[in-house]
User: Fold Aldehyde dehydrogenase from Sinorhizobium medicae.
Amino acid sequence: MTIIGNLLIAGSEKRGTNGEFHGIESATGNPLPVSFGGATPEDVERAASKAWAAFQLYRETDLESRAAFLETIAEEVESIGDSLIVRAMAETGLPRGRLEGERARTLGQLRLFAKEVRDGRFQELRFDGADPSRKPAPKPDLRLRNVPLGPVAVFGASNFPLAFSVAGGDTASALAAGCPVIVKAHSAHPGTSELVGRAVQRAVARANLHPGTFSLIFDTGFEAGQKLVADPRIRAVGFTGSRRGGTALMEIASRRKQPIPVYAEMSSINPVILFPDALKNRAREIASAFVASLVLGAGQFCTNPGLLLALDGADLDTFTQTAAELLAEISAQPMLTPSIAKAYSDGVAKLERHPEVRSIASGKTGSAYEGAAALFETSAEAFLAHHELQDEVFGAAGLIVRCRNLAQLDEVVDALEGQLTVALHIDDGDQEAVTSLIPKLELLAGRLLVNGFGTGVEVSPAMVHGGPYPATSDGRSTSVGTLAIYRFLRPVSYQDFPVILLPQALR
Amino acid sequence: MTIIGNLLIAGSEKRGTNGEFHGIESATGNPLPVSFGGATPEDVERAASKAWAAFQLYRETDLESRAAFLETIAEEVESIGDSLIVRAMAETGLPRGRLEGERARTLGQLRLFAKEVRDGRFQELRFDGADPSRKPAPKPDLRLRNVPLGPVAVFGASNFPLAFSVAGGDTASALAAGCPVIVKAHSAHPGTSELVGRAVQRAVARANLHPGTFSLIFDTGFEAGQKLVADPRIRAVGFTGSRRGGTALMEIASRRKQPIPVYAEMSSINPVILFPDALKNRAREIASAFVASLVLGAGQFCTNPGLLLALDGADLDTFTQTAAELLAEISAQPMLTPSIAKAYSDGVAKLERHPEVRSIASGKTGSAYEGAAALFETSAEAFLAHHELQDEVFGAAGLIVRCRNLAQLDEVVDALEGQLTVALHIDDGDQEAVTSLIPKLELLAGRLLVNGFGTGVEVSPAMVHGGPYPATSDGRSTSVGTLAIYRFLRPVSYQDFPVILLPQALR
Assistant:
C-alpha cells in the first residue's frame, strides 16, 4: 500500500497545490516520508459538486446494497493489513495494541451500522390510513419516512486515527443514513488517512456507487475545511476536536444562507464523584482504577477523567496518597502530536503555577514529545471561584476537588459545564446521597456510569457519546452507537400519493 | 369566565407593570375591554425560576399521570365554553365555524399527545445486556432513555389563537415530553390567551402538579420574550411567526452561554405545481380548488398556496381565467390584526407595482381591516431574476409563474427556498415528469402532496409540518403531529447502574 500524499476526490486522485505538509513522527517530531498537498478552493468545490451528484443516487440505494457497501469498506480497511498499523503508530505515537484494538472497533462499527441499515428502523416509516368518509373533513392518506440530509463533511479526530477519522463513526453513520461523505483528514495522521481513504475509494468502486459518494481532502490550515462547511451542497457536519475548532464551525454553519446542523464533540472533563461509603471501603482500589483510566493512551481520550470530586478527610487522603504513589511510577508516553504535547505541558504548568492548586503527584518525565501524568488538588471554594479550573487539559492530568460536605459537592456539580460522562463511585451506604444527585447529573451529561470510568466507549444501541454544550454542540445527539445515524436524517411526509409515486419503502 | 389582563405565573396571578396594551377588535381596529399588563424582567425571572423548580418534579411524573394531565387541560379548555369562541372571534376576526373547528383540533391534539405519552415509545428505551466474560474487555450493562430538555418557552402564533397558542401544539408536545412551559401570549389575542391560560392553570392544580409547570406572560414589545429565550433555565423554544421574529430568537439562543434549540416555523409560500396532463384535463376543477385553498381563512395559513408553477399555454390560460373569475367573487375577509392587514395590503401593492408582475384578478375590497384576495402572474425568467418574488405575502395572495417547459419549471424549483409543503397536481400522463421531480422536492419541503393543497394540516403520527430553512429553523423537526414530542428530548445512557438507582422505566 503506497502513500502518495494525494487528495482523493470522487474516485480519482490529484496532488493538492495549496501548500504542503508532512506527517510527523510523534516520538521524535521528525517529518515522515511523503508530503501531502493541501486542497485548493477548486478542489473543495469539485468534491462538493461530485458529492451532490452522488447523493441523488446514493440516497435511494436499497438497504441491502447500502449495508453491503459498509461491509465492503470494513473488508477493504482490513485488507490494508499491518502497514496501516505501522503508519498509524509512527504518526500518532499510539502503541500497536491500542491501534489494533481501534481497528477492530472501526471494522465493528462499520458492520454494526450495516446491521442497523438492514434493520431499517432508522427510516421511521409511519402510515396513517385515509378515511374519505370522516367528518367534517376527509382524512388523507399520510405516510412518513426519514430521508438523508445530503452530503456530510466529516472532520477526522486527532485521537482516534481510525475509529473517529476517515472511516470512523461519523463517516459510517452518515453513509448508513444515505449521505455521501467528504472527509477533511486530520493533519496529525495524513498517511493513515490516505491509506483508509483509498480503502473507502476501492469499496465505492467495488459497490458500483457514484464515485462522488466519498472524497478525502487535506488542508494545510483551516481554509479548505471552512470552505467545505460553507458550501451550499454540504448539509451537515461531523467534528471531533477542540472547543475552539468546534465553535468556529458552528459559527460558519449558522451564517450560511441555509444554516446546517453541526455535530461537534468538543471538550469534557468527565467528573468522577467518589461517595463517602465507597471512599471509606475502597479508597485504594478506586485510586488504582482511577490512575489506570487517567493515564490510558496518555490521557488523550474525550472521556478521560480530568476531574474528581470527593469529601475532604482521612479517606480521601488515603485515596490521594495511593493515587500519588501509583502515578509516580507511570512512564511518560508519547503524545499524538508535538503541538498536543506542548499544549499539555502548558496546561500542566498553568495548574502548577495556580495559587489555589496543589500538585500532589507527577509521573515520570520524558522527551518534549511525551506527556508525564500529573495529579492536582484544590478546594471546592477555589474551584467555584476560578472558572478556568474547568478548562480541559487534554492529556493525563487530573484535578481532585476536596469538598467540605455533600452540600458543597452539590454546589460544585451545579457549577459544572455540560459533560460527556459522569462516573459515580458508590457503595451501599451512599444510596441516598447518589439518588438525590442523579436527576442533576442527567441534565449535565450524556452518559452516567457507576463504579467505572468513562474511558472505553461501547459501540452499541444504548450508548450515548454526547452531552450538553460545551461537551458537544448539540446535546440531542450521540456520535457513538447506532443512534448516531439519526443525526443525518429528517422526516418527510407524503400525502395522498399514488402508490407508483411513493418511495419503495412506503408502498 | 373573566378576563382581567393579569400575568399567570406559576399558579398565581398578578398585574404586569411593564406597560399595557389592549386586545383589538379585528373588524374595527377598536380596543376591546380590559387592558393587559406587560411582564417585567422580574416577572420573567420568577416564571423561569418556578418552571425550573417544577421541572425537577414534572420530568419524572409517571406516564399515566402526565397523560391524564393533558386530558385535564383539554377538559378545562372545553369547559370555558362559548365565551372562548366569542372572545377569539372578536380578537382575530376568524369566523365561528373556523374557531370551533380549531378548538376541536386543539382538544384532539392534547388528547393525541396523551395517547402518545401512554404509549411510551418516545422514551426510546434501549437495553444492551452486560457480558462480563467478553474479550478483550467485559461488556458493560447499558440502558438508554430519552429525558426532557427542561422548561420550554412557547411563542403563541397569531393565526392559530387556539391550536398554536397557549394550549396548542408546541405546549402540548413540550408538556408531553416532560417539560414545563412558559407561554409568551401573542398580542393579537391576549384575552383568548388568558382564558386558555387560566384553564391550563386549573388543570395544573387539579393534577396536583407543581404550579411552575405552566406560566403565561404578556409582552408589550419584545423585551420579555427575548429575556425568556436568554434565561439559562429555558432549554428550548417553540415559535410560529415571521422569519424576522424567528431568526431574532435563533440569534439570541445561539449567543447564550449554553445555546439551545429553537424550533421556529417561519415562512413558506407552499408551491403548487400543475403538471401538463392534469392541467389539460382538469384546469377548471383545479382552479376552483386552488382559489378555495388560497382564500381560506383570508389566506392566513402557514400552508397557504402562495405560488403556482405551470407550463405556459392555452390550458394555463383556461386555469387562470377560471381562477380570476372565481376570485373576483370572493368577499374581503377580516384579517387577524390591523398590522397584518396593513402588511398584506402593502405586499399586494408591491406586487401590483412590480414591473415584471401582472395582476390577473382581485377579490372584492373591504374595510382597511379586511384583506381582498389577489392573484398575479409572472414569467419564469422574471421569477428567477427577482428573488423578492419569493417573499411570503401573508394573506390570500397568489403568484402564478408561467414556465416555458418542464426544464424551466425544474430551474424554478431549483431556485426555491425551503418550504413547508409542495402540492403536485397530476394525471396519468404526468407520471414521468413528476417522478423525476420528486427527489428534488423531498429536499425542498417537509410534506409533499398529490392533487390537494397544503391547507388542512392533519394532526397524526405521519404528519410533518416542518421543512428546510427558512420554512423552519430546523428541518429535522415537525411542529404538528406526534413526532413533535421528539423536539424536546435528548438521550441519556446509564452504564452499570444498580437496579435501585435506575429510572423506573429502565429497571
Notes: Chain A has a mean pLDDT of 97. Chain A has 14 helices and 21 strands. Chain A touches chain B through 68 residues (CB under 8 Å).
